[in-house]
Amino acid sequence: MYLTSYLKYAGIFIVLIILQVTFIGYIFSIPNYNITPDIVILFVIYLGYTRGHIAGTLSGFISGLILDILSGSFFGLLALSYCVAGFIAGYFNVQLTEKASRKSSFIGIIFLCTLVAYTIFYMIYFQGSSNSFFNIFLKHVITTTLYTSVFGLIFALLFNRFELKKYFNK
Fold first, then answer.
1. What are the contacts of 143-148 at 24+ separation with CB within 8 A?
2. Would you tell me how many other CB atoms lie within 10 Å of the CB of residue 58?
3. In a domain, 31, yes or no
4. Distance (Å, rounded) from C-alpha 44 to C-alpha 110?
5. H or E segment at 95?
6. How many other C-beta atoms lie within 10 A of the C-beta of residue 134?
7. pLDDT along the chain (170 residues), means of 10
8. Beta strands in the chain (DSSP E)
9. What is the CATH number of the domain that holds 83?
10. What's this model's pTM, rounded to 2 decimal places?
């Protein structure tokens, strides 16, 4: 990848992180259930899926570290979770010949990567609490995974509708 690609992706990550911290966290969150969609991990998964392991892992680590610094919570926990999600998404970096199968599989990849990432995140985050694994998994992991996957579906539909992939893959 060229320097302009790195700068373009860095700019996109900065915009997504600002949106995640300010706009998304307050407008689209469901505070009664502590559920917030995560648009940064969607782009990490997209980069891992389209660019491979290294791009997914590095982008996940850097964006997770920035979000860890901004949140003031467990330092490095989001970096670890996003790094694993980007790495797993890189496993699916296979050039499929049919667009339809590639589009439909991307939603499943988003679900799988976010499920693994949030399982890691919440299991470490709630370590030492009186909550059981089953309770944490149902209340936090599954709900956040499903909500983020719905946002991933919306973004995937928007990308296909407005041909935004041409801009990102240059």
1. 143/33, 143/35, 144/35, 144/36, 144/37, 144/38, 144/114, 144/118, 145/111, 145/114, 145/115, 145/118, 146/111, 147/30, 147/35, 147/36, 147/37, 148/37, 148/38, 148/41, 148/42, 148/110, 148/114
2. 17
3. no
4. 10
5. none
6. 8
7. 77 89 81 83 91 91 92 88 94 62 74 95 90 88 92 81 53
8. none
9. 1.10.1760
10. 0.85
